[in-house]
Amino acid sequence: NGGKLTATQAKQVLAEMVGPDGGDPEAIAAAKGFEALGAADLAALVTDAIAAQPAAWEKYKAGEDKAAGALVGAVMKASKGQADGKAVTALLQELRS
Question: The domain containing residue 59 runs over which residues?
C-alpha cells in the first residue's frame, strides 16, 4: 500500500513476519486489508467527527488540546483503525488555525 501503515498496523505485520509462518510484509498487509486512507477520505472522516462531536470541537478550538482525543477516537472508530492518528491530529490542528 505504498509503505503507509499506521504504527498499530505495522506492529501486527511485524508480529506475523517473525512468527512461524513468516511472510512478505506487503502480502501480509494486503491480506489484513491494511490500506492507507487517502487525504480526501481522511478529511471527510475528520469533518464527520467534528459534526458528530461539536462540543469537543469547540473545546479543541478554544485551546483544550485534550479534546482532540475524542475527535481522533471518532475518526479511528469510523475508519476501523485504518486512519493514521498523527495525520488526523495534524489535520485537526490545520483546521483549528
Answer: 39-96
